[in-house]
Amino acid sequence: MDSRPVALVTGSSRGIGRAIAVAFGRSGYDVVVNYCHSEDAAAAVAAEVRAAGSQAVVVGADISKPADRESLLSKAQAAFGRLDVLVNNAGITSPGRKDLLAATESSWDLVFDTNLKAPFFLAQGAANAMRQLIQQEVIQQGTIINISSISAYAVSTNRADYCMAKAAMEMMTWLFADRLAEERIRVFEICPGIIASDMTDPVKAVYDRRIADGLTPMRRWGTPQDVAKVAVTLVSDTFAFSTGDRFNVDGGFHIRRL
Ligand code: NAP
Fold it and tell me: pLDDT tens-digit profile of 158-194?
């Protein structure tokens, strides 16, 4: 049985997930790279993890589909025989970014299925697997990290479904953190601000301007690496007596200002 810790990062073919997968690979974790559409990009991420001296497997799975979630978790465990970390990163923005007075049920369903239902049931599945692995003394502890957003508390009226799904992720983090605290599984939420990725590329010009005008106390875009550094630190012993916490990675955006 492999003795190195294993991290499963959903949606790690691009953006924040990619940076998190590579950071875990560089920190001595074997990595399960998950993609939905971007197979070649996922293969490139796995190559980067291997170049860092860790092992990687690539698993295609649409996390919005229950059968895919199940096969993702079972392939992840079959690959390395253990699971130490789940990072619930995969997510989509609100399709078409429609004003909430024109928002559609199909957008709601897709966003909630992908951004809330999938992380919930992946956390449930991973937690049950980790409990068993802890009981069998294959691993000492587990960690689940949920990637939410400043949209959990900052309204965008053209992305109501996205904001509400991210808001619910905070409660989801508390629920799992409480339930799993005595199971030696810690649960955290990372709350990224405005991060340069494919997701924000269509609105880049708008945010270039708003950031320059002082929207965020630190007047720069966040990078996927800013988020990844926090993720690898959270699984370390530094936060051994913490669970259920939200970590802001937002250049100070969450500070109320007059
Ligand atoms: P991104 O650049 O659009 O990348 C999204 C990733 O998620 C891709 O790897 C994509 O895989 C994957 N994905 C999407 N739907 C999936 C599905 N159904 N099943 C499996 N994988 C799926 O987005 P990002 O900016 O890195 O965002 C990552 C996370 O951070 C999201 O949860 C997002 O809400 C959150 N976030 C982002 C920002 C920001 O400013 N960028 C801010 C706060 C929070 P494929 O390409 O293979 O389909």
Answer: 999 999 999 999 999 999 999 999 999 999 999 999 9
| CATH, domain 6-248, list 3.40.50.720, 3.40.570.10, 3.30.565.10, 2.60.40.10 | 3.40.50.720
Q: How many residues does the chain have?
A: 258
- pTM above 0.90? yes
Token pair for 168 = 């619910």
Q: Which atom of ligand 1 is nearest to the CA of 18?
A: 9
Who's near 48: CB < 8 A, 6+ residues apart?
22, 25
Are 194 and 207 in contact by the 8 Å Cβ rule? The answer is yes
Residue 119 Cβ inside 6 Å of ligand 1? The answer reads no
Maximum Cα–Cα distance across the chain: 57
The verdict on the CB of residue 251 being under 6 Å from ligand 1 is no
| Contact in structure between 234 and 145 (CB atoms under 8 Å) | yes
pLDDT range class, residue 237, cuts 50, 70, 90:
very high
